[in-house]
Write a structure and sequence with these properties.
Length: 133
């Protein structure tokens, strides 16, 4: 795992494995606290991070090898989080698992959601309004 900060932003690379999901959530929780936002007021942010990371691991890296790149920054009252993988991409046919609830859960908590094909991989950009609780 590589964690960095640049101009107050969070930048991290995590292995594409299940143990990275709670680690990513923990890093975002710490980031919010450092920025004087009570993580308890933003449970939807943490849930969305878990769902986006899980999707990257389960759907992006079907064969198990890869990394998750996560960036987070605050712009005014908006928190932006980008999670990307270098896996099969968003247009690849779904294999085996998932009911699609992860993206529904994310959509319930964001003010904007962008999913981009990065060829290779997928980038999910989530924008949250920190003034809403």
């Amino acid at each position: 795992m590589v964690v960095g900060t640049r101009a107050g932003n969070l930048t991290v690379r995590l292995p594409g494995e299940a143990a990275s999901v709670p680690r990513a959530r923990h890093l975002v929780r710490e980031f919010l606290a450092r920025k004087r936002h009570d993580p308890a007021d933003h449970a939807g942010v943490l849930l969305s991070v878990s769902e986006a990371c899980t999707n990257a691991i389960v759907h992006g890296y079907r064969d198990g090898q890869g990394e998750i790149h996560m960036e987070a920054w605050i712009d005014g009252s908006r928190l932006r989080i980008v999670i990307r993988d270098s896996g099969v991409g968003p247009d690849a046919p779904a294999e085996g698992g998932g009911q699609g609830y992860g993206m529904l859960l994310i959509r319930a908590h964001v003010v904007d959601l962008q999913v981009r094909d990065r060829n290779p991989g997928t980038e999910v950009e989530m924008t949250f309004d920190l003034s809403q609780q």
